[in-house]
Amino acid sequence: MTTYEEDYARSINDPEGFWGTAAEGITWYKKWDRVLDNENSPFTKWFPGAELNTCYNCLDRHVEAGRGAQDALIYDSPMTGKVEKFTFEELTNSVARFAGGLQNLGITKGDRVIIYMPMVPEAAIAMLACARIGAVHSVVFGGFAATELATRIDDAKPVAMIAGSCGLEPGRIVEYKPLLDEAIEIASHKPKHCIVLQRPEATAKMIDGRDVDWQELDAAEPADCVPVAATDPLYVLYTSGTTGVPKGVVRDNGGHAVALKWSMKNVYNVDPGDVFWAASDVGWVVGHSYIVYAPLLHGATTILFEGKPVGTPDAGTFWRVIQDHKVSVLFTAPTAFRAIKQQDPAGKLIADYDISHFKTLFLAGERADSDTIVWAQDTLKVPVLDHWWQTETGWPMGANCAGYGMKPVKLGSPTHAVAGYDIRIIDEEDPSIEMPKGKIGVIAVKLPLPPGSLSTLWENDEGFLKSYMEEIPGYYKTGDAGYIDEDDYLFIMARTDDIINVAGHRLSTGGMEEVLAGHKDVAECAVLGAKDALKGQTPLGFVVLNAGVDRPDTDIVKELVLLVREKIGPVAAFKEAAVVKRLPKTRSGKILRGVVRKIADGEPYKAPATIDDPVILDEITEALASIGYPKK
Ligand code: COA
Ligand code: AMP
Q1: Deepest of 14, 147, 221, 305, by most Cβ within 10 A of its Cβ?
Q2: Which pLDDT tens digit goes with each residue over 142-193?
Q3: pLDDT at position 244
Q4: Best substitution site from 308, 321, 366, 500 to test ligand 1's pocket, by max atoms within 8 Å of Cβ?
């Protein structure tokens, strides 16, 4: 057994040796010519020349190895009252049939398929079926509106869409099909087919000649796994960038399978046969990596949960799921635990459940505040481990790698860099300078990125270089700022761009500003993330109205809230805006976002020497007070 330190050093000094060994955890049709081809850096290729099938590695091979009768996926839905279990054999058969149905529609290797589904097992079946036939899926989160879906349709140019008739949110049914139809109407690209899963809660109207019922595909002859190159794309996942235009992160097949399989034991300390639960959504990277691919690649059982941590029915739901399905490791966002803590501060509900088999809680997606970690530790009486990663990396960059034996927890730190990630702290002003221990800078990863990280942006190599690779030559820019302490513990402090994390959901304030600026009465605007006791951050708008607008501010704000909901979706959680006379700027015209954020959060601030007119800060303070900021 090697130590974390030994493995980490080898992964950096001998990446070919390290990942070549890890690749033995995957079944290949054809072995690689080389483990790593970095000649065209940063367009790194892992395992060029190799062939595999990701779906085969997730399903068929476990059946062949005698795991057919083990549960592969457990669907637990307090929203519908249903629990459904699929063994590896059942899931393999369902996926193979649906893959056959996709092939019957003419869908083939390299074709893109957009999946717009709620948290039902069919979402995972659709993803795995695409992987089985070499089609490239792109899952879009159900909380996004039609316009956001349309942007993704135009970028990915899918031949088909797979959608559920509806999603279920507490107290309301979200009909997906009208949103899907509207998105296709708005988009210039028109997918040939829409495959619709009719859920009993809402029946979708079908369009003749285009729409096909899920059941028709499910009745097809099963399809075999199609070998693909290790470097072929498995999926494209759109994530927020610094503008309203989302970035299509491309994940390959080979490196992804190797890294995710490796992470299950080494990061999460999960063994084949264990039950692993990532309480997220398939629309996010956590859902891709740790609801669908990694647990199945590893032969573990995964939980697909359709519900909320509170209110479905109460703050004991998570404990009930852990008990009922013998979950050994849970991974969720700190927001989920803040929500539970808010409803059940004394953690009383846990006493009603037997969770004695539960081993570890992992948190990621946003900064984990110390109060939440300590509360979770006290309530669960197991280690609570923060870890850090991004859609782009696909798996953790910073973690307390439990598979090696845990390191002491330092509150506020995701612990150490994970194997393969050579993390450096770079001076914000001068990218050639590395910051000393304990000093904050921009967090970058020395190239090459390890397997599983993004290979490029979908049909946008230039955007890939510009967004991540150009600013700090030879490094990947994470977009986060932070420091490394004397004990090599990492601390993630803030984003360096306009991205905010709302309830663990990554959103672009730039995208929201584009929407606000589109309102007829708005002359100028800014959106920033204000502190929120539950969601970590929530977006807060500032708008300057056009001269002569004399309608009540409250009416205009209501319209703006609706507009963001309509254009980006409810997930943006944009609910508040202050109407101000002017925005505080520097003399060169840059909005002083940091100062405004401090005023909104009730923190002490100093007007910078470069401010155009300090009086504006008093106006901002007054406008914020009128809408209840800073919050108590
Ligand atoms: N489809 C349609 N609408 C959705 C949706 C979906 N899949 N997911 C969320 N929404 C809606 C919500 O209903 C809500 O609508 P509302 O404004 O009408 O109330 C809105 O989008 C904002 O959602 P959210 O920010 O998630 O707030 P919430 O009050 O519904 O739930 C939490 C808050 C904390 C319970 C929830 O965010 C949560 O469980 N988060 C942690 C786990 C997680 O998913 N992390 C993500 C990555 S690890
Ligand atoms: P996403 O791509 O949606 O996974 O969001 C990635 C971003 O979330 C990161 O760049 C960070 O800003 C933030 N993030 C994720 N995990 C953590 C963490 N453990 N601590 C602090 N921030 C985090």
Answers
A1: 305
A2: 999 999 999 999 999 999 999 999 999 999 999 999 999 999 999 999 999 9
A3: 64
A4: 308
Identify the nearest ligand to the CA of 174 by its number.
1
For residues 227-255, one letter each, b for 16 or more C-beta atoms within 10 angstroms of the residue's C-beta and e for the rest, the string is: bbbbbbbbbbbbbbbbebbbbbbbbbbbb
Angle (nearest 5°) at CA 391 between 417 and 423 = 20
Tell me, in angstroms, the distance from the centre of ligand 2 to residue 522's CA: 32
Over residues 604-617, mean pLDDT: 90
Element containing residue 531 per DSSP (H, E): strand 522-532
Whole-angstrom Cα Rg for the chain: 24
Q: Provide the pLDDT for residue 358.
A: 98
Q: From atom 5 of ligand 1, which residue's Cα is the shortest distance away?
A: 143
| Spatial distance between the Cα atoms of 591 and 231, rounded to a whole number of angstroms | 43
Q: What's the pLDDT band for 612 if we cut at 50, 70, 90?
A: confident
Burial class of 169 by CB neighbour count within 10 A (0 to 12, 13 to 18, 19+):
middle
**% of the chain exceeding 90 in pLDDT:** 96
* Long-range contacts of 341-345, Cβ-Cβ distance < 8 Å, separation of 24 or more: 341/372, 341/375, 342/310, 342/533, 342/534, 343/310, 343/314, 343/315, 344/314, 344/315, 344/316
